[in-house]
Design goal:
Order of helices and strands: HEHHHEHEHEEEHEHEHHEEHHHHEHEEH
Cofactor: pyridoxal 5'-phosphate
Enzyme class: transferase
Mean pLDDT: 97
Protein name: Aspartate aminotransferase
Helix content: 40-55%
Organism: Vanrija pseudolonga
Bound molecules: (2S)-2-hydroxybutanedioic acid
Subunit structure: Homodimer.
Radius of gyration: 21 Å
CATH topology of the largest domain: Aspartate Aminotransferase, domain 2
Low-confidence stretches: none
Structural class: alpha/beta
Largest sheet: 7 strands, mixed
Number of domains: 2
Distance between the termini: 48 Å
Number of helices: 16
Length: 399
């Protein structure tokens, strides 16, 4: 039956994990997927999450279906974390929210909502962006357009080009913005630049479509990392937000996040809610319950929330310390090039500037795996492998 089915390409990010697993060399390092690792290179279950697990276990809750839009307490607490408890759309009951299958699920339902209900059927994505954005847009029925974002020459933000492209986009365009810790570059606009962007969005009546997968990972402080989202909302933009708890709570496989849309009134919110349900029900009926209960337990108990905030900061700080170490090693080894960006970039990734052929050599000769765009997941490094990694990079760059 499937004789004519062609083999598809491996996923640009998750395919790396498959290659890494197949490698039997003990020196192998996986810096592909953005998943936090502890100082021993092991996956990390946050202690606050383990505590919440114990609390839930004792409660002996049932396994009934959730409503189509998810666990109400989770939806409330999660969006308060993103928008702030005092956020006007929350207080005025005009934020439409649905629990989502993490960030990807939020993006997919969010883009389907745009495709069905927004006059404009295209979405502007930064260059570069997370590889999956393009595929999600296409599947949702949107045309993916591009705006310039990163400047390889300065390994920083090309703010002038970014503004130029956003100004040149037709009025009312949907523009995807990484709220913080831009993936893959680790380069974010400053608060002043966000303010300027908000003004341009107003003038051009653009629609801000935020993806916030790393709240807490940029600065170690979830409130600070939510600056762009909160500022745009304060300025009156009716944003759409995709929120993920994969990274900041380490709930990768639980698939828990939210999709939310700021609406103009409770009545409009009710209509938007009803249309979201029509997208979710035929896609996966209703979301999984466990991750939402974990998040809800942590965010509703002040002590547990405090503990979690400390753990997020710890993860962010470990990555910052690794950046410093990696930079020092590369310089010590007299690796050709300027490596300051390793220290200045933020979030989970460093966009090293390594070329695809160099990435291939790292895999083939040194058993080190990263995405072909030269992105490394910083957390995959630790005291046991950072030296080997820096030496290998240095050798490959020296050619
Ligand atoms: C990544 O960029 O590595 C993460 O967002 C994980 C994923 O699903 O790609």
């Amino acid at each position: 039956v499937w004789a004519n089915v062609k083999a598809g390409p491996p996923d640009a990010i998750l395919g790396i994990t498959e290659k890494f697993k197949a490698d039997t060399d003990p020196k192998k390092i996986n810096l592909g997927v953005g998943a936090y690792r502890d100082g021993n290179g092991k996956p990390y279950v946050l202690p606050s999450v383990s505590k919440a697990e114990e609390i839930l276990f004792k409660e002996k809750l049932d396994k009934e279906y959730l409503p189509i839009t998810g666990l109400a307490s989770f939806d409330k607490l999660a969006t308060e974390l993103a928008y702030g408890e005092d956020s006007a759309p929350i207080k005025e009951n005009r934020l439409a929210v649905t629990q989502s299958l993490s960030g990807t699920g939020a993006l997919r339902i969010g883009m389907e909502f745009i495709a069905e209900h927004y006059p404009n059927k295209s979405i502007y994505l930064p260059t570069p962006t997370w590889g999956n954005h393009n595929a999600i847009a296409k599947r949702a029925g949107l045309t993916a357009e591009k705006y310039r974002y990163f400047d390889p020459a300065t390994v920083g933000l090309n703010f002038e080009a970014l503004k130029e492209d956003i100004k040149a986009a037709p009025e009312g365009s949907v523009i995807l913005l990484h709220a913080c810790a831009h993936n893959p570059t680790g380069v974010d606009p400053t608060q002043e630049q966000w303010k300027e962007l908000s003004q341009i969005f107003k003038e051009k009546k653009h629609f801000p479509f935020f993806d916030m997968a790393y709240q807490g990972f940029a600065s170690g402080d979830p409130v600070r990392d939510a600056f762009a989202v909160r500022y745009f909302v304060e300025q009156g933009h009716q944003i759409l937000l995709c929120q993920s708890f994969a990274k900041n709570l380490g709930l990768y496989g639980e698939r828990v996040g939210t999709l939310s849309l700021v609406t103009a009134s409770p009545e409009e919110k009710a209509r938007v809610d009803s249309q979201i349900k029509l997208l979710v029900r035929p896609a996966y009926s209703n979301p999984p319950v466990h991750g939402a209960r974990l998040v809800s337990t942590i965010l509703s108990k002040p002590e547990l929330k405090e503990q979690w905030l400390g753990e997020v900061k710890e993860m962010a700080d470990r990555i910052i310390a690794l950046r410093e170490k990696l930079y020092n090693k590369l310089v010590e080894l007299k690796t050709p090039g300027e490596w300051g960006h390793v220290k200045s970039q933020i979030g989970m990734f460093s966009f090293t500037g390594l070329k695809p052929e160099q990435v291939d050599q790292l895999a083939e000769k040194y058993h080190i795996y990263l995405t072909r765009d030269g992105r490394i997941s910083m957390a995959g490094l630790n005291d046991n492998n950072i030296e080997y990694f820096a030496e290998s990079v240095s050798k490959v760059v020296k050619g």
